[in-house]
Design goal:
Length: 124
């Protein structure tokens, strides 16, 4: 199983219940054939350019683990579903962090300053 992340823009003309239904539709497909790791509802945001004469969209980001067959099924769902303006699914490279997994703690200020000064004594 590989890590994927889907960015979905739902039609802003839908009411809140219909948006929740659209999100539930594709997350249930993910749950049936893979593992849904995280879903972030970003809410209504302005688009960089108009899509189908719409200047806004409801953004949803979902991180999941699955095989390639699920990605094909999701692409088909997003293509035929009228409630989805756009969707993009990307595979997260192994070892990389994404929104699907918690990121590691950032280094402390002391560790960053020491590394910048070259203050490590273990270096030969």
């Amino acid at each position: 199983m590989r890590n994927y992340e889907a960015m979905v823009i739902v039609d802003p003309r839908l009411d809140d219940a219909a948006v929740e239904e659209a999100v539930a539709k594709f997350t249930s497909v993910i749950d049936s054939q893979g593992e849904l790791v995280k879903t972030d509802l970003w809410g209504r945001r302005r688009l960089a350019y108009e899509i189908d004469h719409q200047g806004e969209g409801y953004y949803v980001v979902a991180g999941f683990r699955s095989s390639g067959e699920l990605v094909e099924e999701l692409d088909r769902l997003f293509e035929i579903g009228e409630e989805y303006l756009r969707a993009k699914i990307v595979r997260i490279p192994d070892g990389a962090t994404s929104g699907a997994e918690p990121s590691p703690e950032p280094p402390s200020d002391y560790a960053v300053a020491e590394a910048a000064e070259g203050g490590s004594e273990d270096v030969e």
